[in-house]
Specification:
This protein has nine helices and eight strands. The protein has 354 residues and is of the alpha/beta class. It has two domains: 217 residues, Alkaline Phosphatase, subunit A (3-Layer(aba) Sandwich); 99 residues, no CATH class.
């Protein structure tokens, strides 16, 4: 049986592989904001994720997992240090820099003879110059279209591509180039399906005909709940109409959304314009072909009240699940590469999310 391990929600796990003459490779895959109910190994109502499900089926699925910190950067700091946030020093996403001088598990693995690498989202406001033989990380949060990376200190923009596809390509390429005389440890960190859930053109419309069931608490007024629960009211209802819902707003119309807690100084219309400006002509054309008719229909319906809330939810879910489907495809491509290279049976695989 392939030694595959599925983890959702947990930030660090250990497992023993059966004894072999060769130490196992380790592939740690982490996506951003991937919810449990968007993995069909846990709940198949909304989406099918056959490649991630394969990890659960051929390995193990964690049903009781607890995070040390779920925020983007702090979650990653916890993973590589095995320390609580107040100990590793990285407690929030902004205005902090991760202390790269401290102990990390990649450093320990490197010292034990492993070839170590990380591809994709790092998000620690620092560079992984210690503990990784090869690194190619997104700049900050990263961009969905034509993203900028920093490859072993050199900044490069990958044009005519999408971040999920590029991370997949870079991961497989790095695995092909790993030394044959060493076991390897690869960290593959996806940006998707993080906000604003912008999928590749081939996934646009993937769920256009699907109506997603509403959560039981969707219309809860929180009258009988504690203040903390009320403060955490369904943020999906408050999505930015421009940057989140991809709607074309008139130039003189402020974005009606609050984003679920408006960030100081954040202009969603400007953010969406910047997002669109990164696309090349072909990408922009395909984007407009899909989202422009949807935008026009939205204004024709002129929803208000609960009908508006439901419409926003459905739009969000379709975009979100498109991004999830793209991540699942990526996982499948990496598993296929490991099979074809003969490395699958000697690779410990972890899939998790912040």
């Amino acid at each position: 049986m392939n030694k595959l391990l599925a983890v959702v929600g947990a930030l660090f796990v250990g497992a023993s592989a059966e004894r072999t003459d060769k130490r196992p490779n380790i592939l740690f895959m982490m996506s951003d904001d991937h919810a449990l109910k968007a993995i069909s190994a846990y709940d198949d109502v909304h989406i099918q994720t056959p490649n991630i499900d394969r990890i659960a089926k051929e390995g193990m699925r964690f049903d009781n997992a607890f995070v040390t910190n779920s925020l983007c950067g702090p979650a990653r700091a916890v993973v590589i240090t095995s320390k609580y946030s107040h100990i590793n020093g990285f407690i929030q996403n902004d205005n902090m820099t991760f202390n790269e001088d401290q102990w990390t598990f990649p450093k320990a693995m490197q010292a034990e003879g492993y070839y170590t690498s990380i591809i994709g989202k790092y998000h620690l406001n620092s560079l992984p110059e210690h503990g990784f033989d090869y690194w190619n990380i997104l700049v900050g949060q990263g961009e969905y279209y034509n993203p900028d990376f920093i490859e072993n200190g050199q900044r490069v923009r990958y044009n005519n591509t999408h971040v999920t596809d590029k991370i997949t390509e870079l991961t497989i390429d790095a695995l092909k180039k790993a030394p044959e005389d060493k076991p390897w440890m690869m960290m593959m960190h996806h940006k998707a399906p993080h906000r604003n859930q912008a999928a590749q053109a081939r996934f646009l419309g993937h769920f256009v005909n699907k109506t997603f069931s509403l959560p039981e608490t969707f219309f809860d007024n929180y009258a009988t709940r504690c203040p903390a629960s009320a403060a955490a009211d369904n943020k999906v209802k408050h999505q930015y109409w421009s940057n989140d819902l991809k709607l074309d707003l008139p130039a003189d119309m402020p974005d009606p959304g609050t984003g679920g807690g408006k960030a100081i100084g954040f202009d969603p219309k400007k953010a969406y314009a910047t997002f669109l400006a990164r696309m090349n002509d072909e990408q922009r054309s395909k984007w407009n072909d899909f989202y422009k008719p949807i935008s026009d229909i939205f204004y024709q319906r002129n929803y208000t009240g609960q009908a508006l809330d439901i419409d926003i939810y459905q739009r969000f879910m379709r975009d979100y699940m498109q991004s999830v489907a793209a991540v699942d495809e990526s996982i499948g491509e990496v598993l296929k590469h490991l099979e074809e290279s003969g490395e699958l049976d000697n690779t410990l695989i972890v899939y998790t999310a912040d």
